[in-house]
Amino acid sequence: MIRGLFVALLLAISAVSHGTSVPQEHVRTPDQTFLTFPEWYLVHSPAEYAAYLERGASPSAFPLFAHIGQFWQSYAAVNREIAEYPFNGGYHLMVMVIGVSTTVEYSLKGLYERTVGRLAEALASAPVPEEQFAARFAQSYVDFIRVEPWYQFNFWSTLTDLWSSVPLHGPDLIRRWERRFLLTSELLVKAGYGQLIRVCSESVYDVAKPVTAVRVNRVPVPDQSYPDFKLLDSSGLATIPRYEAFSRYSLWLASQGIDFIAVAGNDGEIVISLIVPDAWTTILSRQLFEQPVLTRPGTKRSVLAIPVRQLGDFLRHVLTRPEIVVEHIYDF
Fold first, then answer.
1. How many angstroms separate the CA atoms of 95 and 89, rounded?
2. Residues 208, 210, 211, 212, CA torsion sign
3. Which of 3, 139, 177, 247 is the most buried (most CB within 10 A)?
4. CB distance 218 to 15 below 8 Å
5. Is residue 14 part of a domain?
6. Given this model, what pLDDT does residue 121 score?
7. Rounded to an integer, what distance in angstroms lies between the CA atom of residue 145 and that of residue 306?
């Protein structure tokens, strides 16, 4: 007990002296917590699609065109927020590339689903094996892109699996071959485009660090379920995993009563998105914008900006509210 208090005192004193300073290799610009939202929307959208297919809902009714609108709405909203910062050309280029390519993909797929797809769907007596395969592929793709760049997904292996594991014969052949054609076309295009994006990305951008540096006001109790919390010095500087795992580790730290002093060298605002009931409001943070979750009536995505030093308190509040889901914390 005494040793724990002594360590906490040392961390508090050291945090005051160090402020938000972190090694330069771990510093990211403050605008990136905003700019990562539209990038991550292209994880949230496929995740919504995967959950939609898992429920056995009609593929032709998924709101692809509305998702295009939500992506560009979010990009416009975060651009208004970062107007005061120097222009981050590299990040804007990346967001524009993925935004335009997704707009083309969703537009073509939306047109196809509302014509050929809807007609073939009407001719089928029940969901076909290719639809079940598509649901599994959608979920495995989402699981992958939560932690890795989309273009590293093995589309070729999935295509091989489609043609080797799903029987070619059976009832509702029109629908089955129509779905097989759509899946094959999608996987071939993404495999080829992914290779192109991989080459371009590796030539333009450095390899991203897989961790985020955080400064906390005290050290958490060790937990084998969170082995990647790495304390770097006695000031409370540590690293935790980046991307999807950052949210999980942040919730764990907050649940321990720990507060953040800085994230990636920043002590300003950090962006967080919640999935909440339509009627939900908050006075504990600054709301940037809202979006309806289009396939889940009665729910919405609320995107908020919270001072880093208040993040722990806010997450502890959220943990007491079962109707609120932390969708993502955008770690610069």
1. 10
2. positive
3. 247
4. no
5. no
6. 96
7. 26
Q: Tokens for 80?
A: 């208004």
215 and 179 within one domain: no
For the entire predicted model, the pTM comes to 0.90
Q: Do 224 and 166 fall within a single domain?
A: no
Q: Helix (H, G, I), strand (E, B), or coil: what is residue 39?
A: helix
10 Å CB burial of residue 86 (0-12, 13-18, 19+) is: exposed
Taking the C-alpha atoms of residue 251 and residue 329, their distance in angstroms, rounded to an integer, is 10
* In a domain? residue 6: no
Q: Which domain holds residue 230?
A: 209-330
Q: How far apart are CA 271 and CA 311, in angstroms?
A: 10
Task: Bin 264: left if φ > 0, else alpha if -120 < ψ < 50, else beta.
Answer: left
Q: What is the pLDDT of residues 72-130, one digit of tens each?
A: 999 999 999 999 999 999 999 999 999 999 999 999 999 999 999 999 999 999 999 99
Find the helix packing angle between 173-204 and 155-165, rounded to 10°. Answer: 160
Following DSSP, what letter does each residue of 48-71 receive, concatenated? HHHHHHHTT--GGGS-HHHHHHHH
Structure token pair of residue 79: 């651009």
The mean pLDDT value for 154-180 works out to: 96
Rounded to whole angstroms, the Cα distance separating 118 from 128 reads: 14
